[in-house]
Amino acid sequence: MLDSGAKKQILMVEDTASVAALYKSYLNPLDVDVEIASTGQQALDCFSSGHTFSLILLDLRLPDISGFDVLSEIRKHQPEIPVVIMTAHGSIDAAVEALRYGASDFLIKPCEADLLRVTVNNALKPKSKMSGQTPEGSYYGFIGHSVPMQAVYRVIDSAAPSKATVFITGESGTGKEVCAEAVHAASSRAKKPFVAINCAAIPKDLIESELFGHMKGAFTGAASEREGAAEMADGGTLFLDEICEMDLDLQSKLLRFIQTGTFQKVGSSKVKQVDVRFICATNRDPWVEVNKGNFREDLYYRLHVIPLGLPPLRERGDDVVDIAQSLLLMFAMEEGKDFRSFSEGVIQRLLSYEWPGNVRQLQNVIRNIVVLHNGREVTEQMLPPPLSLVSGVKLASSPAISSTHAKIDQVRDSGFSAATVMLKQGVISKADIEPLWLVEKRAIQIAIDACDGNIPQAAGLLEVSPSTIYRKLQSWQESQ
C-alpha cells in the first residue's frame, strides 16, 4: 500500500480502452485516482488545463503523436514527475531509449497485476527512499552503469518487493545467479535463505531428492533423512538455474509445488507446505524449448511472469573496463601482486573483443594475467589467448613469437599462395614453422577458452566431434 494521505493522481496514456480499463482495475488496491488519456494530445491537454499528477503511465505507441514527443513535453515543463513507459515486448529497445530521455522506469505489456502495482508503488516513493543503497557504478553484486544494465536494475527494483516469479534469461556467463541474488537481496525476504539449484549439474535421478529431500532408505545410498532445497528455502527464495534442463517428469511435480506450495519428500507420504519465492534462469530461449517439447507449456506460463533478460558483455560498453578493474584489484589482493591498472592498449582490446563467454570469461582472463605476471600495469604482452595468440608460458620463454604469429596470420589472411612468396622474400623462415600438433593444440585451447570451457561448443566451432578434443587433451596430458 502507498503511504497514507491524500490520494495520488495518476495519468495513464493508453489508446486501447479495454487495456486501460484492465490496468486501472489492477491499481485499485493502491488507493490512487487514475485518469485515462487515449491520445498524446489529450495527455498534453491535461497538463495545460492545470491538472497535477504524481505519476504518468505512458504508452509509446499512440494514434496521433509519438510517446517520445509526449515525454519530451512533460520533461520540459514538469521534469520532476516520474514517467513509466508501457511498451510491447517487441519494443523493449524503444523503452530503454526512453530511459535516456528521462523516463524513470518501463513495463512490458501485457504485464501482471503484481508487477504493475509494484512498479507504480516504487515510482511514487520519494526519491530519498530509493537512493543510496549501493555505491556509484555497482548494484547488489553487479558492476556497471550502462543503459542496458540500468534497465535491468529498474526491473529488479520493481520486481523485488513482489512474490511474482522472475524468469531470467541470458547467455552463459552473464551473471544470472548474481541477478537472482540481487532480486532476493532487494526483497523483504533478504534475511531469509537464498537456495540455488543447478538443474543441469545434478543427475536426473537425484534432482528430485535435491529439490524436495528424501527419507532414510528411500533409495540406494539414502542412509539418512535429508532436507531438500524447497524446505531449506522456506520463507526465502528458491533459485532454479538452467530450468530448461529439468526432466519432464519432475517438471509436473514442480508445477504442482508452485501452485500449492506443498511437496512430498522422496519415499514419504507426508505432505509439507513452505513459503518460497521462485526465481528461475536459462541460457536458452524457453519458448523454443516449449515448442521442442523439452519444457512444459503450463510450467512456462506459471514461471514466465516477470521476464528479465541480461545483456551480453559485448553490449554493455564501458562496463567491461569497470568490471575488469574491479577483478584486477581483487585478484591482485588475493595473489599478493601489485597490479593496479591497465595500459591504454589493453583497454582498447577489452572494449573491442566480443567476449563470447561474457563476464565469466573476463574473470578467467584477468585471473590468468594476475597469476602469470608481475607489475603494476597490465600490458598487451600479458594478455592470454584468445585476446592474444601468445600464451603466458610462450611469452616468458620466447618474446619474439608474437611477430611470428603476425607473419603466419598474414599468410592465413592472404591465402596459402602467399606463403611461397613470403618464404622467398625471407619474411618467414624455416625456423618460424611450428609442428602441426602444436598449432592444433593452440587452436583447440583458443576455442575452449572462447567457449568458457564448454568442449562440445568448442568442437562445434572447430567442426570436429567432442570426442576428438577429449582424446587429444588426454594424449597431451599423458605426454607431459
From TrEMBL:
<dbReference type="InterPro" id="IPR011006">
    <property type="entry name" value="CheY-like_superfamily"/>
</dbReference>
<dbReference type="GO" id="GO:0006355">
    <property type="term" value="P:regulation of DNA-templated transcription"/>
</dbReference>
<feature type="domain" description="Response regulatory">
    <location>
        <begin position="9"/>
        <end position="124"/>
    </location>
</feature>
<dbReference type="InterPro" id="IPR058031">
    <property type="entry name" value="AAA_lid_NorR"/>
</dbReference>
<dbReference type="GO" id="GO:0000160">
    <property type="term" value="P:phosphorelay signal transduction system"/>
</dbReference>
<protein>
    <submittedName>
        <fullName>Sigma-54-dependent Fis family transcriptional regulator</fullName>
    </submittedName>
</protein>
<keyword id="KW-0547">Nucleotide-binding</keyword>
<dbReference type="InterPro" id="IPR025944">
    <property type="entry name" value="Sigma_54_int_dom_CS"/>
</dbReference>
<keyword id="KW-0597">Phosphoprotein</keyword>
<dbReference type="Pfam" id="PF00158">
    <property type="entry name" value="Sigma54_activat"/>
</dbReference>
<dbReference type="GO" id="GO:0005524">
    <property type="term" value="F:ATP binding"/>
</dbReference>
<keyword id="KW-0238">DNA-binding</keyword>
<keyword id="KW-0804">Transcription</keyword>
<dbReference type="Pfam" id="PF25601">
    <property type="entry name" value="AAA_lid_14"/>
</dbReference>
<dbReference type="GO" id="GO:0043565">
    <property type="term" value="F:sequence-specific DNA binding"/>
</dbReference>
<feature type="domain" description="Sigma-54 factor interaction">
    <location>
        <begin position="142"/>
        <end position="371"/>
    </location>
</feature>
<keyword id="KW-0805">Transcription regulation</keyword>
<dbReference type="InterPro" id="IPR003593">
    <property type="entry name" value="AAA+_ATPase"/>
</dbReference>
<feature type="modified residue" description="4-aspartylphosphate">
    <location>
        <position position="59"/>
    </location>
</feature>
<dbReference type="InterPro" id="IPR009057">
    <property type="entry name" value="Homeodomain-like_sf"/>
</dbReference>
<dbReference type="Pfam" id="PF02954">
    <property type="entry name" value="HTH_8"/>
</dbReference>
<dbReference type="InterPro" id="IPR025943">
    <property type="entry name" value="Sigma_54_int_dom_ATP-bd_2"/>
</dbReference>
<dbReference type="InterPro" id="IPR002078">
    <property type="entry name" value="Sigma_54_int"/>
</dbReference>
<dbReference type="InterPro" id="IPR053402">
    <property type="entry name" value="QS_regulatory_LuxO"/>
</dbReference>
<keyword id="KW-0678">Repressor</keyword>
<dbReference type="InterPro" id="IPR001789">
    <property type="entry name" value="Sig_transdc_resp-reg_receiver"/>
</dbReference>
<dbReference type="InterPro" id="IPR002197">
    <property type="entry name" value="HTH_Fis"/>
</dbReference>
<keyword id="KW-0067">ATP-binding</keyword>
<dbReference type="Pfam" id="PF00072">
    <property type="entry name" value="Response_reg"/>
</dbReference>
<dbReference type="InterPro" id="IPR027417">
    <property type="entry name" value="P-loop_NTPase"/>
</dbReference>
<keyword id="KW-0902">Two-component regulatory system</keyword>
